Amino acid sequence: EIVLTQSPATLSLSPGERATLSCRASQSVGSYLAWYQQKPGQAPRLLIYDAYKRATGIPDRFSGSGSGTDFTLTISGLEPEDFAVYYCQHRSNWPNTFGQGTRLEIK
Amino acid sequence: EVQVVESGGGLVQPGESLRLSCAASGFIVSTYWMTWVRQAPGKGLEWVANLNGDGSVVNYVDSVKGRFTISRDDARNLLYLQMNSLRAEDTAVYYCARAREAIDVWGQGTTVTVSS
Question: Which of B19, B61, B64, B72 is exposed most, by the fewest CB atoms within 10 A?
Fold first, then answer.
């Protein structure tokens, strides 16, 4: 099973700042990595798939990069609605695991 | 509108069974990978099971193998998760979802609580 490790566990930033979230895989997942945002009491929402492709309707302040084992989700110019928990997930093989999440909180 | 709506969650005792249903609209379930993902209280996401479009590939996470069964009713455009021999650690919100390159459609979730 491929383990995805997200860092940091919690990120405290202010609106307008830039957020950089990391996801590291225990072995290569190629470009088969997605990012999701989850707010309290809601289902996750797809942000990025295949490492860098934005999902439909996702603002361009969200961007993804990386390949192999190291991936980054960048949110440039944080909006109040961006404070949430973010998960990465791979589809390289079964089981398609998720990272443990990064909580992005308002500083 | 493309959406999925889960039902069937509830409170059961350890060892009992439950069947979750997922009604899809706006798309045909038999043309996509369909999946169940769960989230224990205060925890992260766990991919439980998935089923491919033609029904030839089924995957389960190790912790539910032999106890859970994912299936589909193509005529009614429904996805199911039959859960037997439930354990306390199966307590979670269960999401039905459509998967393509990633999970692009999520339901609102249905809560399963296993407790005596």
Answer: B19
- Given a contact cutoff of 8 angstroms between Cβ atoms, the answer to whether B104 and B27 are in contact is no
Cβ-Cβ pairs closer than 8 A, A with B, add up to 54
Residue A79, C-beta contacts closer than 8 angstroms, at least 6 positions apart: A15, A61
Q: Give the list of residues 6+ apart from residue B108 with CB closer than 8 angstroms, or none.
A: A43, B5, B6
pLDDT tens figures, A68-105: 999 999 999 999 999 999 999 999 998 899 999 999 99
pLDDT at B31: 95
Q: CA–CA distance from A63 to each of A31, A32, A78, B48, B88 (Å)?
A: 14, 15, 12, 28, 38
- Tell me the pLDDT tens digit for each residue of B11-22: 999 999 999 999
Show which of residues 46-65 on chain B sit within 8 Å of chain A, judged by CB atoms. 46-47, 50, 59, 61-62
- Determine the 3-state secondary structure of B5 from DSSP: strand
Instruction: Classify B30 as helix, strand or coil.
Output: helix
Interface mutation vs chain B, best among A98, A100, A103, most B CBs within 10 Å: A98
B60-92 CB burial, b ≥16 within 10 A, e <16: bbeebeeebbbebeeeebbbbbebeebeeebbb
